[in-house]
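User: Here's a chain of 236 residues. Predict its fold as tokens.
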Amino acid sequence: MLTLAAERMTEHAANMKINADFAQRAMAVTDALPWRPSPDGSVERRMLDRDGAEVARATSLVRYPPNSRFPRHIHGGGEEFLVLEGIFSDESGDYPPGLYVRNPPGSGHAPFSRDGCVIFVKLRQFDPGDDRRVVIDTNREPAESGAFAGLSEIGLHRFGRERVRLVRSPSGAGPVDTCWPAGAEFLVVHGEIHDELGHYPARTWLRLPAGARHRLSVSPDTEFYLKTGHLSSGLK
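Assistant: Prediction complete.
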């Protein structure tokens, strides 16, 4: 009989596929997902998409308990994260809620959290030529007019077709028929967005494949992460 530790190691050693096909629509209400421990037990994760074993192309929510540390590691394919709650830290400093960070391929760190935190993380999803480190405090950045009336946005990153924004809607917006030629990915930070297939409250993750269309509307006092242009058929 396997011990609990051995079972965890076996689970994480296996090649996992969770919403791994970028050509398919995917959605998760993250509060309904279990927190799964990392193999060493230092952090917990809610896995949203994943293709690989412990080193994987992945999108997750990661929770650091108080006084937790994750072993030093290298970002072989890059790391992108948005701090949702608490303070995330590493050798470069402290990152409170609203901090957006891109650590390019080949970078590394030993992260920790003194009081605990939750971050939204994307791993190994960088264009090979995208080698710029980015740190943006979205609490301080001015917002500009968004794609349609009622939206404002903070530009977080742009490289090739990929574009990352934090979108805000103080008074609500839409509905508007929207097409995403190279795909779109949402994480609702707070508030709610809607389309013809459902309602997506805070902490809902939604991924639409290249060429997808939907009728988008946004409730008042909503903020969401939006990445577009990264799900074309050539992306591996």
